[in-house]
Amino acid sequence: HTKRAGRNGYNFFEPSMNANAHHQLQWLQDLRVALERKQFRLVYQPKFSLPDGPVLGAEALLRWQHPERGLVGPDEFIGLAERSGLIIPIGAWVLDEACRQMHEWLTLGYADWKIAVNLSAVQFADPHLLEVVRGALERHQLPPQSLTLEVTESTAMHDTEASLLTLQKIADLGVEISIDDFGTGYSSLLYLKRLPANELKIDRGFVRDLSDGTEDAAIVSAIVALGRTLNLRIVAEGVETERQQQFLASVGCDALQGYLRGRPMAPDLFLQTMREQHKSAA
Ligand code: C2E
Ligand code: MG
Ligand code: MG
Ligand code: MG
After folding, report:
1. Signal peptide: which range, if any (predicted)?
2. 176 CB under 6 A from ligand 1?
């Protein structure tokens, strides 16, 4: 971990610095003030249980409302936030805001929803992670089982023994663990078996082409079978078509997320959309 921490930020000042690095410095300056100027937002994408079950909750996804550049997605700044160390305070804000929002939904009667928050590898390696998570839960009086932390497979695989320890501490809090972008890392079955996880999210890359007989279709049904064996909930991400949804339901996948059923939405729209779906389902 020390190696990673030591690298933070210094990338920008290496001799290989080029025009792109100047560009990055500009972004870094903007990123430094973004938190205090309250430029971050969370949008929420629903997770639905299959075959046509109810909403299980939502994944919180970070957006940056930049004063000149407009709405910026996480792929454009998370890397920089990680390299500069800013992901630590930004990630703490995300956790706090997501817990606040979930508590509000809980008081509105959506007590069985879970809120999922993405953790970066840098947060995951931070020795203060547990305090930050516990603090957010306590501040908003959120029961730990209402929170899920999503960690990518590659993060969970990095330094496996240390990861297992951290995951176990999270699980001991009563918070659920989801392994994100599953299939893109290199988990061994032995390691997977030891993981104190509740959920695997099949990476979008495997969901794109689920026509009969494709390799991806075979991989996805194998992951679903694995989930059944290891007692893990399987969620498919990036579901955009009816056909994909039908395939996933037919192989017994537990849940899905994707543009077909719900895009990431601002909290008001999220609640309104969920209420309308509930009404039309009743
Ligand atoms: P992820 O956690 O795997 O999230 C799924 C991404 O796929 C989201 O992109 C979501 O908007 C997008 N998506 C959902 N359904 C569909 C679909 O049907 N089709 C397509 N093409 N895309 C879909 P987003 O919001 O841009 O986030 C990208 C990544 O950034 C996330 O991947 C996650 O790794 C990271 N991220 C987002 N929010 C946070 C955060 O608060 N903290 C950290 N550390 N990382 C975050
Ligand atoms: Mg995620
Ligand atoms: Mg994912
Ligand atoms: Mg992804």
Report:
1. none
2. no
